[in-house]
Structures are given as C-alpha cells and as structure tokens.
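DM from R.C. (forwarded with permission)

"hey, sorry to bug you on a friday — could you get me a structure for this? deadline for the figure draft is monday and I only need the backbone to look sensible"
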Amino acid sequence: MSDQHSSDQVPDYGQYVPPAGQGGAPGPQGQPGQNGYPGQAGGYGPPAGQYSQPGQQGQYPPQGRPGPAQPLSPADTKTWASLSHLLGGILGFLAPLVIWLVFRERSYVVDGEAKKALNFQILVAIVLVGANLVLPGFIEGLVVFGVWVTSLVFGVLNFQAVGKGQMTRYPVEVRIVK
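My reply, with the result:
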C-alpha cells in the first residue's frame, strides 16, 4: 500500500478516516491528527505512547452542577404555557406538573400558567376520586363525565387564550401549588 496516496487507502474495520481537507491525516511529523480540525490546536490527543496530564487537552470538563438554565424565547414561552392548559385538559394533572417542574425557572409566564393548570387539574382529580368513593354507579358516571368535559373545555379555552395573549381563567381557582 505504499504506492497509494494516503487518501486512497482503505481503513481497517473501525478505524476513523476524516473527510478530505479536514486534517487528521498523518501530519508533517507522521503523527495522526497533527493538523486537527479548524480551531482545534494540536490533534486528537497526546502522541502515541504518552499520557496526558489532568487539565491538558482531551480532558472532559469538570463535573458539577450545570449553570443556570437559559430563559425561554417568547415563542417557546407561549407554546409551553398554552400546552400546559391543553394537555392538562386531556391528560390530567401530570402534564402541567411536568411542564411546571421543567420550565418554572426559565419563564415566569410558564411558571404561572402551568401552576394555574396544575391547581385546576389537581382539583379535578380530587373531585373524580371523591365521586368514585361517594356517589352510586349511574350518578357517579354522570359526574365523572361532566367534570371531564368541563376540564377539557376549559383546557382548550385557556390554550386559545394564552395563544392570543389574554388572561386565563378557570371556573374554580384553588391555590394548591403556590
């Protein structure tokens, strides 16, 4: 294979061959990765037979707490705030709970809207459990259906209200999560 150009060589199975013109081919001193990628000093690591010391190139960044979360863009804020209402009406309290836990520190609007949806959906869950425990069969079914339809209708109405930038309201607002 010495008669062939280095770009014409077929690599062994599992061997990385960088695209042409991006370095990584044997450099002037014969070390692989001498040229590296643009903006990368050196190459892929220490020369063969040498180990890198902590703090040198090729080391992973120190582990620890990640920095503060980036704020949501206005479009993402509107999307997640409205979805907390819609998904709450469809799936119950779990969807607004997850949205609130994930995005509460990234947007005060999502924090407030997800809490409104979460509080209402927790109240809906309490009413549904109470209806199952207290009411007899047919009446229980009517109450459960009525509460579910109410939850769905207000979820859709508040989804649309957030999309239009309007205030959101539920028929009963109990602040369980503050």
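R.C.: lifesaver. The chain has four helices and no strands.
me: no worries. The radius of gyration is 29 Å.
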